[in-house]
Amino acid sequence: MAATATGPFGFAPAIAVLPLVAFVVTLLVGKHLPKKGALPGIIATAGSLLISLVMFAAVGGGNTYHTTLYEWTAGAAASETGADGIAFTFGVLIDPLSALMLVIVSLVALLVHVFSLGYMNAEGETGLPRYYAELGLFTFSMLAFVFADNLLMAFMFFELVGLCSYLLIGFWFRTESAPSAAKKAFLVTRFGDYFFLIGVVAIAATFGTVGFAGEGSFVTAAETAIDDGATLFGFDAQTWVTITGLLVLGGVLGKSAQFPFHTWLPDAMEGPTTVSALIHAATMVAAGVYLVARMFGYYALSPTALSIIAFVGGFTALFAATMGVVKDDVKQVLAYSTISQYGYMMLGLGVGGYVAGVFHLLNHAFFKALLFLGAGAVIVLMHHEQDMWKMGGLKDKAPVTYYTFLAGALALAGIVPFSGFWSKDEVLFDALVIGLEQPVILAAYAMGLLAVFFTGFYTFRMVFLTFHGEPRSETAEDPHPVGWAIKAPLIVLGVLATVTGLANMAPVAELLHIDITYLEFWLDGEYGSVEGLTYHHYHEMVAFEEGVIGGSETTTMLLSAGLSLGLALAGAFTAHTLYNVPEPTRHMQKLGGAYSLLRSNYYQDEYQVWLAQGFTLPLARAADRFDQTVIDGLVNGTSTVSLFSSNWVKRIQTGIVTNYAALLVAGFIGLLLILGALGGWFV
Question: Which of helix, strand or coil describes residue 653?
């Protein structure tokens, strides 16, 4: 049922407003505050987390909340489906999905703020008020995006998230690389967002609504149009849903760094590591996947759109994982792992695995935040050195960092019983059972499965090169100590990376026939739900047929889990054999041309530069020439003729009455002559 604004849900907008207040306070007076503005951000995000937990508990108690805060414009324009008008509003939607995501975002944001005390303040960074102000704005933008109740509001905060990432990636703007990386992130994601904006306009024009929930949502309108066999803008309704869904997907691929819009994310490592943790785990990159989950009912109406999502996700998972195996910068390894892991989420959602995709989003938020903050701790230990080949031997010198980082690595690699195993296994299982009936999905599953080996390999290559063996530099011999502002967030995230998999242990539930798939119950509205936004409803909408191996779902699940776990262990063991030695060597260089290809990221940057310079630029120049010669020539020619003729006509405007009388007489005589000639008067 819907709660009233006088209950706990009345505080829902404050979840986003508190970080916004922190942004304003820090921006105005941050340099005069203790810790250079960190305290307002910590207090605000702690408040957001507390209210988010209240919202979470309220939803768990059977309540949901959907209200309009402000209607900023409305019109009477008719839509393609016959709706009489449309209203654009700011509203709040608190349901199981948004309540869960609010807790994730606010918790990670709080831990990043605390960690920054040890990473930014303790290291004597300049510009800290600006840094904390931008963190506050970033957190506000993502939280408002999460509880947005309509697509246009989501788009607006989606764009604000992109702006904040630009500011934070380019935080060290006096360097050459950081501003360049910020501009690249901004431009690449903007390209995808152009398609998103067109999709928003198309959905609004088609259905007369952009709401996510309720009878007046565009999902319900689309479902009705398909059932009625309607024709929308010359297309059958399902085809039009596919087109508009894929347009919105353009923005998703940009923000979530999926192929071919992934190239900005590795360069984004030029920002502070704390920013990387927030971007990769819970804000900008997560925003795209969350949007697909938020409007999953719309995509479920189009098997074509789902298949494209799944294939792109599976391909990206493998594509990025192969590049991660040759990187030497610890943050670069994690960057490519982020691209790959979000590919798994897209794969899960694309095969109709709504719970699996959200589950991996949950787990990844914690273990990726842990790994990035762990990398930040290593960078502090190493006096800001990021090359893993200059590390080694840190295991005993920084045990808290090591063991928490190891927990994150085990989760990332998908090793049982850590969280990543349960969600990645569920994604692959869902892909397998659909793939047995759908060849395109089977190909996506195969790519996702192969990526498991590379994930295990690059993850433990990173662990062994960073922490094991002998120190390979003077800095590694005598690392800089880290304080509890760094250790405490690592411990919290280490625990979460270990235990959050308990939220949905589907294989155990299947084997023992016990109800322990708590996340599935949560997303299915067992506790509280909004009509039409439940897993059960989505599952009925997805048109894919499911297959099994050996006539048994249990057998299929065990085979899927065993295969993925075996590949993960094989990758980890390969890394152990090659790199868990006192003096590791650069084995990857022995790959020859393949090594060069992977180190160059498949020449994606070069390809995009060629595309811009060899195709887009000549096309733009040709369009410019056409504009200046044909279009401007036509306009300028018309004006020239007008000026020339008027220059002659004005000569008869003498101001002398007798001249005008003579012209009238001459005109009259001329008219008579013409009429006479035409009428045969002179024959």
Answer: coil
Write the DSSP assignment of 18-54 as a string of letters.
HHHHHHHHHHHHGGGSGGGGHHHHHHHHHHHHHHHHH
Cα 400–406–408 angle (5° rounding)? Answer: 105
Helices 177-207 and 151-169, interaxial angle, to 10°?
Answer: 180
SS3 letters across 504-523: HCHHHHHHHCCCCCHHHHHH
Distance separating alpha carbons of residues 668 and 475, to the nearest angstrom? 105
For the stretch 304-352, pLDDT in tens is 999 999 999 999 999 999 999 999 999 999 999 999 999 999 999 999 9
Half-sphere exposure of 83 (CA within 13 A, CB side): 25
List, as one string, the DSSP characters of 211-229: BSSSTTSHHHHHHHHHHTT
Phi-psi region at 21: left, alpha or beta (left = phi > 0; alpha = psi -120 to 50) = alpha
What's this model's pTM, rounded to 2 decimal places? 0.91
> What percent of the chain is modeled with pLDDT above 70?
98
pLDDT per residue over 532-551, tens digit each? 899 999 999 998 999 999 88
Tens of pLDDT, residues 204-243: 999 999 999 988 899 999 999 999 999 999 899 999 999 9
From CA 371, how far away is CA 419, in angstroms rounded?
14
Give me the half-sphere count of Cα atoms (radius 13 Å) on the Cβ side of residue 239.
8
The length of the chain, given as a count of residues = 683
Token pair in block for residue 676? 């006479």
Residue 314 contacts residue 353 (beta carbons within 8 Å)? no
Q: How far apart are CA 44 and CA 52, in angstroms?
A: 12
CA distance 49 to 56: 10
Give the per-residue pLDDT at 5: 56
When comparing pLDDT for 429 and 682, which is higher? 429
Q: How far apart are CA 64 and CA 402, in angstroms?
A: 41
Question: In whole angstroms, what is the distance from residue 501 CA to residue 366 CA?
Answer: 11
Residue type, 167: L
